[in-house]
């Protein structure tokens, strides 16, 4: 499910996500995060594509993590999330969440 | 720092895929500390020679491979029988791909295997024609036959992220993947490796970390070596955007309409980054950490195995010539060359005195000695063989270029220009220091070019001959079109941009937007439309990338028995195999390329000669006003064009009128101007004219002194009296390279070959040409010990030599060019009807056919209308007999020759229709024609509209009022078309009665077409008008504006402001030394041609009209350019159609107001 909402992310020493807070709930990463690159449809976005400026046009850095809620009172359920690094340093997006139960809860 | 070798790298020569030039990729690898660099282009070795060259230059070793599609096994005839059932099927419909790397240091075995495998991947489809792009590739069972040599593997197959194995892994079918890999291992023992690639794609997808880890584990478990690569497709992340656009161009679909590349990670990553990737992959696998080091070291081991030795593996730069056996000679080729040249010489100079023969033989010996020293004898014999092959096929041919300077070439009949008579030098062609094969280019009749190619293949053998290819690269227009397609712009927008791009580099698009007046509209769009703005960026990105490969227009490669081990071949558009190398690869690959260039003028000349023979037969000489005993006309009327006298005064007189339309190379507006000034009187003048008509000499004021001296206004100024013998023919002006050679030789007492060496190196500081020239010339003394050249003379001579570099022209080249110029002028002078018919048939020039028709009329040659009973597939000459008076046959000299229009110019006629029409000629009626020639309804209508059926309308009667009769014809055509079925062919009975029946009632309905309609129709159907010039439709407006007919321009004083109008026949933007662009536009108005020059300001005013508008009105000032020359310096231009629309509106308004 596509989310695209801002999240606060706490990083480990090697720069990978360790914990994050999303919609008031704290989550802890419980697997080795996997870094990957998604792509943007740059031709739909405003802007230019002149030679030498294309580096940031396509790649969108993502971290896929398995995480569980740490906040008390929430059911401890594993979820898989794509956390996207935004262009400004330190800013993150919750790009996608993969969890059937979460789906139903969010759109109940 | 440990090295890392990228073994899988696509360059821009993977067309519509790669984005980076091989040289740039190598440079980047070198700066990252690589010792080896690989290139593995898709489907071929298109960039391989460049890559090897770049590696040699950078001092590293080259690895070469190919990236090939894996085709499904064809059940019937693939692999060993019985194994078929075991072969697992590929799991997905996307074609899998493999990479094949040649091993090196095995005497070229690896290279040969690679070449042959690639040729097999392109082997022709059933009809001998190229495969469709999707069908290029190889079945899994086939590589082993090529790659496993007698002493083991000579290449390695990489199974990367696009392989069938990787597809199975991505589909999470690990057991299928394992069995596939085991099968590969069985097929290619010791010649297989798993290529682990991690592009950090979405977890689980191909080339993700997980996927790479599974591939590595699989290699480990099946026992196949694994190597790491980044499956590189571009140099930097930035280039991935270009990759997206190329993907769109490849699929012919806009971005967003197909699955794009997953991200921008396929760039040439540093060794460090690759090491980190190795550890990342291993960390995500079940293997121990040491597996990462193993992966990296096995990559380098494979790289080492694949290092090529250019000398041993490719025979780098060593000429690979056809062998003696193929040429049919025994013993020393040099002896044979001497024998043939000597006997050829005696034939060529049959009338020479014995003293002349002696000096000819001396020169011939010198040439042959030089040829022998280089070991080029078989080369000359090969070219002579090709040339004689052409003669035996009766195809006109003529060597061009510096080769015409060789007496050997003249004796062997490779060239037809007498080098002695025109003082052409062998040393300019083949000096002392050449190491690569000299170029001999042969011009042939364009219409027979393919026949010649086939004959060469037959003569030398399929395995020793190949056509050369050429890479077509993106230019501004094509780049804008493909970029527009990628962005999903609509066709109208794309057209608007593309049609206004005129000869500039796509990468300068944005910079020139504000500079070029014709781009004004686009510049405005860019400011308001983000997509057009983006289009400019993408167009710049595509600039100069290879788009597709095609057959080179003239290159034929003649090789030895090893040719197919040296280059991969693929079918060309005409079916014959073509090499994947282009002309820049020839010298390095050691291949001999012969340029067999199709020249339409040669076809024109040949056709004119055959028409003359057909029409006049034994009366040929008489009909052309030639002496009846002319040696160059055979008894039955065949003219030997290469033997005509080069001093024919009638021909020069015709040239001097500047009515040079159709004369080879001297018909352009600029040339007409120069010819008008020069008033040539001899063949040497034509050579000079052609040599001078280039930007350098025109700007460098070499023309004025030449003309002034020629016309007697000035005394010739010889740089030094000793130069007189070789500067006399150019009135003291130094024009030719040959003269420079002679100057060096005279001043410095050196040989002509040394003189050529000085000429070539004059700008090279290391050669110290100036120092040596001054010293040796000063030391040059006569028998009394007096200096021949004083200091002043040395200054003067050096100044000319120094300044000459960019201006000079090879005289042999000019002389070879001047021959067809003279021959065409001669034919036009003596046989105007036959020559214009040939021009119309083969269309060699720069002008549209309508201008040729006007020229024919001007010369009193009538144009005979299109007639389905009389017109052929070519333009023919017909005799129009004068009416008999009192039963007495008319004097044959009163016969007028006319030109009958050709059916092949009827728009939309198919080859089959044309053939049927010709086969069944003549016809007795329109119905008869419709039935027996079976034209499509559309074609019948078009033929009727242009009058091709008029002769069938009123059989037996003289055609009266043509216009009225045309109305009848069209009525009949409509009646025939309206019937559901064509009458059955068995009804041979002409259907005329029906026609007669119908006519009564239909004529009334059928309005005869107006003149404007007729012209419009003719233009439409024939792309030229016959009845009346298109401009005549606008006559009332033109008269009101006071537009001057082109024919009257010459009566104007210099500097008169005039208006001219017409249809654009030529646009030129010749290079200018100032760097500023000048646009020449020629308009034809039926009375003649006007030539207008647009300088900057006028270009600005004309804006988008400059290149887009057909019918124009131009205002400007006349500028006299000589006795018979005049041009217009334009100040403004308008679109005639737009003016006409405005004018009509005004007229109507005035009419309304008046009433």
Task: Walk me through what this model shows.
- Chain A is elongated, with a radius of gyration of 15 Å.
- Helices cover 10% and strands 48% of the residues of chain A.
- Chain A has a six-stranded antiparallel barrel with strand order 1-2-3-5-6-7.
- Chain A has helices at residues 55-58, 100-106; strands spanning 2-11, 17-22, 25-29, 34-39, 59-69, 79-85, 92-98.
- With 108 residues, chain A is mainly beta.
- Chain A has one domain (2-106).
- The model of chain A has no long low-confidence stretch (mean pLDDT 85).
- With 1155 residues, chain B is α/β, with parallel strands linked by helices.
- Among the domains of chain B are: 22-80 and 100-156 and 226-314, Metal-dependent hydrolases (TIM Barrel, Alpha-Beta Barrel), CATH 3.20.20.140; 475-544, no CATH class; 714-808, no CATH class; 832-864 and 876-893 and 900-1022, no CATH class; 1034-1154, Nucleic acid-binding proteins (OB fold (Dihydrolipoamide Acetyltransferase, E2P)).
- Helix content of chain B is 44%, strand content 13%.
- Chain B is built from 50 helices and 24 strands.
- In chain B, the strands form six sheets. In chain B, strands 1, 2, 3, 4, 7, 8 and 9 form a seven-stranded mixed β-sheet that branches.
- The longest helix of chain B is centred in the first third of the chain and has 21 residues, at 354-374.
- Chain B is globular and about 110 Å long.
- Mean pLDDT of chain B is 88; it is low at 76-92, 955-964 and 985-1006.
- The A-B interface holds A 32, 34-39, 41-44, 46-55, 57-60, 62, 64 and B 199-203, 208-210, 236-242, 244, 255-256, 260-265, 283-284, 486-487, 507, 510, 530, 533-534, 537-538, 540-541.
Radius of gyration of chain B: 35 Å
Strand order of the largest sheet of chain A: 1-2-3-5-6-7
Which stretches of chain A of 5+ consecutive residues score pLDDT under 50?
Answer: none
Structural class of chain A: mainly beta
How many helices of chain B in DSSP terms?
50
- What gross morphology of chain A would you assign? elongated
Main sheet record of chain B: 7 strands, mixed
CATH homologous superfamily label of the domain at 22-80 and 100-156 and 226-314 in chain B: Metal-dependent hydrolases
Q: Which strand-content bin applies to the residues of chain B?
A: 5-15%
> What is the top-level CATH class of the domain at 22-80 and 100-156 and 226-314 in chain B?
Alpha Beta
Percent of residues in beta strands of chain A: over 45%
Q: Look at the helices and sheets of chain B and give the structural class.
A: alpha/beta
Uncertain stretches of 5 or more adjacent residues of chain B: 76-92, 955-964, 985-1006
Largest sheet of chain A: 6 strands, antiparallel, barrel
Average of per-residue pLDDT values of chain B: 88
Here the CATH topology of the domain at 22-80 and 100-156 and 226-314 in chain B equals: TIM Barrel
């Amino acid at each position: 499910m596509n989310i695209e909402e801002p999240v606060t992310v706490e990083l480990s020493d090697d720069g990978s996500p360790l914990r994050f807070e999303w919609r008031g709930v704290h989550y802890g990463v419980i697997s080795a995060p996997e870094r990957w690159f998604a792509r943007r449809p740059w031709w739909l976005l405003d802007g230019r594509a002149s030679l030498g400026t294309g580096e940031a046009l396509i790649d969108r850095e993502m971290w896929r993590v398995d995480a569980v809620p740490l906040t008390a009172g929430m059911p401890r359920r594993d979820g898989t999330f794509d956390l996207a690094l935004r262009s400004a340093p330190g800013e993150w997006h919750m790009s996608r969440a993969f969890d059937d139960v979460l789906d139903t809860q969010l759109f109940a | 720092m440990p090295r890392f070798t990228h073994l899988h790298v696509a360059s821009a020569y993977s067309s519509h895929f790669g984005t980076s030039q091989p040289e740039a990729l190598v440079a980047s690898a070198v700066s990252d500390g690589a010792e080896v660099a690989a290139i593995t282009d898709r489907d071929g070795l298109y960039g391989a020679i460049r890559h090897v060259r770049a590696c040699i230059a950078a001092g590293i070793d080259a690895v070469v491979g190919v990236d090939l599609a894996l085709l499904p096994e064809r059940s019937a005839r693939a692999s060993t029988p019985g194994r078929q059932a075991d072969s697992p099927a590929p799991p997905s419909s996307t074609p899998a791909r493999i990479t094949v790397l040649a091993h090196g240091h095995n005497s070229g075995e690896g290279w040969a295997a690679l070449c042959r495998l690639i040729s097999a991947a392109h082997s022709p489809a059933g009809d001998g024609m190229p495969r469709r792009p999707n069908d290029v590739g190889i079945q899994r069972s086939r590589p082993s036959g090529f790659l496993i040599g007698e002493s083991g593997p000579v290449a390695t197959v990489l199974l990367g992220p696009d392989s069938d194995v990787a597809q199975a892994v991505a589909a999470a079918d690990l057991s299928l993947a394992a069995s596939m890999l085991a099968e590969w291992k069985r097929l290619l023992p010791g010649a297989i490796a798993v290529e682990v690639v991690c592009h950090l794609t979405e977890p689980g997808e191909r080339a993700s970390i997980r996927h790479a880890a599974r591939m590595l584990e699989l290699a480990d478990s099946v026992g196949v070596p694994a190597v790491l690569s980044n499956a590189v497709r571009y140099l930097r992340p930035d280039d991935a955007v270009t990759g997206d656009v190329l993907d769109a161009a490849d699929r012919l679909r806009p971005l967003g309409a197909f699955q794009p590349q997953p991200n921008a990670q396929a760039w040439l990553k540093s060794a460090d980054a690759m090491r980190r990737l190795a550890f990342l992959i291993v960390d995500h696998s079940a293997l121990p950490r040491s597996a990462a080091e193993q992966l990296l070291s096995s990559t380098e081991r494979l790289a080492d195995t694949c290092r090529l030795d250019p000398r041993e593996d490719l025979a780098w730069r060593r000429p690979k010539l056809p062998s003696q056996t193929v040429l049919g000679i025994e013993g020393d080729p040099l002896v044979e060359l001497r024998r043939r040249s000597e006997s050829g010489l005696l034939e060529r100079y049959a009338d020479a005195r014995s003293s002349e023969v002696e000096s000819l033989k001396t020169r011939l010996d010198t040439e042959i000695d030089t040829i022998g020293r280089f070991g080029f004898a078989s080369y000359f014999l090969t070219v002579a063989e090709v040339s004689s092959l052409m003669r035996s096929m009766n195809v006109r041919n003529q060597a061009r270029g510096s080769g015409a300077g060789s007496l050997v070439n003249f004796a062997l009949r490779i060239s037809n220009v007498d080098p002695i008579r025109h003082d052409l030098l062998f040393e300019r062609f083949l000096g002392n220091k050449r190491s690569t094969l000299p170029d001999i280019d042969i011009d042939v009749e364009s219409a027979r070019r393919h026949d010649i190619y086939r004959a060469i293949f037959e003569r030398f053998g399929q395995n020793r001959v190949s056509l050369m290819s050429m890479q077509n690269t993106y230019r501004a227009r094509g780049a804008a079109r493909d970029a527009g397609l990628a962005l999903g712009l609509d066709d109208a927008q794309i057209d608007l941009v593309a049609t206004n791009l005129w000869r500039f580099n796509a990468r300068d698009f944005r910079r020139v937007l504000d500079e070029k007046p014709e781009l004004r509209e686009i510049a405005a769009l860019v400011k308001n439309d983000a997509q057009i703005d983006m289009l400019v960026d993408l167009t710049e990105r595509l600039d100069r990338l290879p788009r597709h490969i095609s057959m080179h227009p003239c290159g034929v490669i003649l090789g030895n028995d090893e040719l197919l081990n040296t280059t991969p071949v693929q079918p060309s558009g005409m079916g014959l195999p073509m090499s994947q190398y282009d002309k820049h690869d020839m010298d390095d690959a050691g291949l001999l390329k012969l340029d067999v260039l199709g020249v339409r003028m040669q076809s024109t000349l040949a056709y004119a000669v055959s028409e003359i023979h057909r029409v006049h037969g034994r009366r040929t000489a008489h009909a052309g006003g030639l002496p009846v005993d002319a040696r160059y006309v055979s008894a039955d009327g065949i003219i030997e064009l290469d033997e005509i006298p080069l001093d024919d005064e009638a021909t020069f007189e015709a040239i001097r009128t500047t009515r040079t339309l159709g004369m080879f190379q001297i018909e352009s507006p600029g040339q007409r101007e120069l010819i008008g000034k020069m008033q040539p009187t001899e063949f040497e003048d034509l050579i000079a004219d052609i040599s001078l008509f280039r930007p350098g000499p025109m700007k460098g004021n070499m023309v004025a002194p030449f003309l002034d001296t020629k016309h007697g206004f000035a005394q010739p100024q010889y740089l030094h009296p000793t130069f007189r013998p070789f500067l006399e023919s150019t009135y003291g002006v130094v024009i030719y390279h040959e003269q420079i050679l002679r100057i060096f030789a005279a001043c410095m007492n050196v040989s002509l070959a040394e003189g050529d060496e000085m000429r070539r190196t004059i700008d090279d500081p290391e050669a110290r040409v100036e120092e040596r020239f001054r010293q040796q010339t000063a030391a040059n003394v006569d028998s009394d010990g007096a200096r021949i050249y004083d200091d002043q003379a040395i200054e003067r001579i050096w100044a000319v030599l120094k300044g000459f570099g960019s201006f000079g022209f090879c005289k042999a080249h000019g002389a070879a060019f001047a021959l067809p110029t003279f021959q065409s002028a001669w034919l036009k002078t003596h046989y105007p009807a036959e020559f214009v018919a040939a021009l119309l048939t083969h269309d060699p020039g720069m002008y549209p056919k309508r201008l040729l028709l006007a020229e024919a009329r001007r010369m009193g040659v009538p144009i005979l209308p299109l007639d389905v009973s009389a017109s052929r597939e070519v333009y023919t000459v017909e005799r129009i007999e004068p009416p008999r008076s009192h039963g007495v046959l008319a004097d044959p000299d009163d016969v007028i020759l006319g030109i009958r229009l050709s059916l092949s110019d009827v728009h939309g006629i198919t080859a089959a229709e044309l053939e049927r029409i010709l086969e069944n000629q003549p016809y007795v009626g329109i119905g008869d024609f419709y039935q027996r020639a079976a034209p499509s309804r559309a074609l019948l209508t078009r033929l009727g509209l242009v009058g091709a059926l008029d002769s069938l309308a009123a059989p037996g009667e003289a055609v009266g009022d043509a216009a009225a009769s045309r109305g009848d014809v069209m009525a009949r055509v409509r009646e025939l078309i309206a019937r559901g079925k064509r009458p059955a062919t068995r009804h041979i009975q002409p259907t005329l009665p029906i026609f007669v029946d119908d006519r009564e009632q239909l004529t009334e309905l059928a309005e005869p077409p107006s003149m404007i309609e007729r012209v419009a129709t003719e233009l439409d159907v024939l792309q030229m008008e016959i009845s009346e010039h298109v401009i005549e439709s606008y006559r009332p407006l033109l008269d009101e504006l006071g537009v001057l007919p082109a024919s009257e321009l010459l009566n104007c004083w210099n500097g008169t402001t005039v208006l001219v109008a017409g249809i654009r026949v030529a646009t030129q933007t010749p290079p200018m030394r100032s760097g500023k662009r000048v646009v020449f536009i020629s308009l034809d108005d039926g009375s003649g041609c006007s030539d207008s020059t647009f300088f900057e300001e006028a270009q600005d005013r004309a804006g988008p009209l400059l290149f887009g508008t057909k019918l124009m009105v131009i205002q400007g000032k006349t500028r006299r350019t000589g006795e018979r020359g005049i041009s217009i310096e334009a100040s403004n231009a308008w679109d005639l159609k737009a003016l006409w629309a405005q004018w009509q509106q005004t007229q109507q308004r005035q009419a309304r107001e008046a009433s």
